[in-house]
Amino acid sequence: MTAGAARGVGERVTAPFGRRLCEVTRNVASGGYRIFSTLDPSGPEPAAGQFYMLAADSGWGGDQGRPYLARAFSVADAERQGSGVRLDFLVQAVGPGTSRLAALAPGEDLWIHGPLGRPFAAPSDLAPGAPGAILVGGGIGVTPLALWRRRLLRAGIPARVLLGFRDRPNSGGLDLFDCSEIRLASEDGLHPVGGHKHRRRTYRGYVTDLLAVLLEGDEAGSGAVYACGPPAMLEAVRVMCADRGVACELALEAPMACGFGACFGCAIPQTPKNGRHKNRGRTYIRLCVDGPVVRGDEIETALVPGSGH
Ligand SMILES: Cc1cc2nc3c(=O)[nH]c(=O)nc-3n(C[C@H](O)[C@H](O)[C@H](O)COP(=O)(O)OP(=O)(O)OC[C@H]3O[C@@H](n4cnc5c(N)ncnc54)[C@H](O)[C@@H]3O)c2cc1C
Ligand code: FES
Q1: C-alpha span between 24 and 14 (Å, rounded)
Q2: Measuring CA to CA, which of 50, 127, 142, 244 is 20 to 30 A from 31?
Q3: What is the pLDDT of residue 5?
Q4: Is this prediction's pTM over 0.85?
Q5: CA geometry: angle at 5 spanning 3 and 9, to 5°?
Q6: Ligand 2 atom at minimal distance to the Cα of residue 288
Q7: Strands 84-91 and 33-40, how do they pair?
Q8: Residue from 51, 253, 256 to probe ligand 2 pocket by mutation (most atoms less than 8 Å from CB)
Q9: pLDDT (tens digit per residue) in 14-50
């Protein structure tokens, strides 16, 4: 971290050893997604962009076998409560693991392991003198940006927020952004569920169209770009920022079996100059420890096999 960065913003937090059993305290609808919360009695406060491996204590595995492994989840919000930390997660049910987690009732037990991975870095660490941040989220990828916006706000760093969704059923999480200055995009032109506060501002098209407009104007040099969303959106952001010389960080996804660097299931190719694990001339990073947040210039493509849903 450079001297210019706000202290505490963007610093990796190390997970305690092993997984912890926590009680679910809340589960509410958020548009087409759900937000569930738990109280981590002994864990540290995570940094924005970090994730947890989650598994329900009951209804996990069993006779059917699936879901078996814990699933990776970005933390959407985190707040110290007494000696513990309240953790909020945003979930889109797409398969057996996410469906079980989306159905967790208050009082049920949840296994958590984290916080894991590399968080977002402060704007001044990405581009010296960058006064602010532009946050670009797509679909369920809005999750880590909600916590990042709060942390930037807490550090007095201005942030613009652009969020895009496919259609109304595939939208949500807007209640995690308690501000009215979000710019919204949706492919069907309808305002996202829960987006009534922002109805007049919903643009029909891709969220990257909104970013292009920002970067064409005076905003190009006004900060670093942070993005999380489907692979095609992340790739568009990466290319757009590279073409314009704008610093960016992308929160990527890959299928993750362990979440802490042991299985190499999340390895992706890296631009050669930055590589850490060499294999026949190609270089690789493990997204669970070297990511999930990576700088745009660290990777050749954001189109990670097996990611996105
Ligand atoms: C670092 C990280 C943070 C994540 N944060 C969130 C979050 O905040 N909220 C949320 O709802 N989901 C999040 N995910 C995605 C979530 O972990 C996967 O969707 C999950 O593994 C699906 O499990 P399943 O059993 O429900 O479905 P599976 O049966 O595992 O898969 C169902 C569908 O999801 C796709 N899929 C499987 N694994 C992944 C993956 N890792 N990434 C993308 N698509 C996948 C499959 O191609 C398939 O179409 C995150 C993933 C990572 C790696
Ligand atoms: S998920 Fe096992 S090494 Fe990354």
Answers
A1: 23
A2: 50
A3: 46
A4: yes
A5: 135
A6: 4
A7: antiparallel
A8: 256
A9: 888 889 999 999 999 999 999 999 999 988 999 999 9
